[in-house]
Amino acid sequence: MANILIVDDNKQTIQQVDELLCSFGYSSLYTLEPEFLFEILESKPVDLILLDVHMPGEDGVSLLKKVKEHPVFRSIPVIMLTGDTDERLLEKCFASGAMDFINKPIHDIVLKSRVKSALSNRDHILALRKKSSSLKNVLQIATMGMWEFDCSNRYMKWSSEMYQIFDRTAESFPSSIGNFFHVIHPEDIKIVKPYLHDLFESNKVAGPLDFRIIRPDESVRIVHQQAEVLEKEGKPVHILGITQDITDQQRSTALQHAYRRQNQIREEERERLARDLHDEVIQIFSMLNLKINVSAKSGCSSESEYCWLRDNFQSCQELIHTGNQTLRQIINDLYPSILKDLGLAPALRAHIRDLNERMNLQIELHVSSGLESWPAEIELAVFRITQEALNNVVKHAKTPHAQVMIGQRENILWLQIEDQGQGMFLEEMNLKSMPKSLGLFLMKERVSQLGGKITIHSQLGQGTSIFLEIPHSPIERK
After folding, report:
1. Is 353 a member of any domain?
2. Which residues pair with 231 in a beta bridge?
3. Residue 70: which CATH number?
4. 3-state SS, residue 2
5. If 0-12 CB within 10 Å is exposed, 13-18 middle and 19+ buried, where does residue 68 land?
6. How many domains is the chain built from?
7. Is there a single domain that holds both residue 314 and residue 400?
8. Which of 143, 159, 235, 405 supports an S-S bond with 416, CB 3.0-4.6 Å?
């Protein structure tokens, strides 16, 4: 319900207007003494002021000016009440900030219409101001400035955000084409100059452009610029543009590329090391085992005779066999060749089967029907995350039971890993247990680099659940 303040020295006018406003569904306040106007405004919320033009002491026009000059109350719409038909007086009221006027004696239909219109305009203005404020906040958050160029008088205007990007003030660095050139990095002038020439001289827009600027402290920033030419009757009249500081985004992108390249190098090194272990070390073990086996048979005269050489060679053979198996496991952990050859589901199946056999676990794998092949970096990331999660189950969960579920829907690959172990407090682990939390951090980084999202839930005594989604398109495996 809108609150309307009536300021008039006539009791009958106040009584009439008050009754009408109540019948229209509004709440009204009133004062017969204009000097109390600001006391009322400071004590109660007011949405509209009905102000008499002629009052003893200070007249309505001077009060109107004071309201419109006040930093807090100037947005309140004011309708003047007057029995005077002097046009110059009405012009003076409008010039001082009045929204409308109502002639006395007051007619109920006129009052209702003018009040409704004033409140509607007020709501519209408040909405526009809210949008303007939101836009300003968006521009500040995005570190984005706006600029305008008038083609007729070649006048350029920058928004306040432009000065923030340039780290300069409007007083010391007026907006102009010359000053725009002044902030551009010397090495980038050769690409920016033809762009701006086409824009300001030929009114052609060549598309977005990224270039560097230099601030007064000699720091270098990267900005992204776009512009639009507004035409009238086929002729350019105005150019609107945006300039955005993308330095932090560029650095973040560079870090992401570096991280992905680091992962790629690490996986390539793992593959090379696995290949070398397989081609050299395991072959050495196999040849050694063969030679010992031949020596053991040739060193004994009969099957029943005690043969010290044979018994000791047997223990050596067992050690070699164990070492051989361990090396094969290391090779598989370093780089699962089955992942490259057959795909994600077979690789997960083999890894979980091996874990169950070696660690006496009961890990179940559920693969949704129709799971397709995905890009190699995605399949490798999902395999490594599963590997790390199940490693945590082995080391920390203190339970033989876990489930791995994987599937896809449209262009989303999803994975869920659950165990019924002892769980953990994630907040405490992140703060106090760096070796454990590092694994979770690497999981999140892998998923983040692929544009996905991961959720980890865990509570003491209630197990741990990891769920991730990675967007992409499946591919046809060759």
Report:
1. no
2. 236
3. 3.40.50.2300
4. coil
5. middle
6. 4
7. no
8. 405
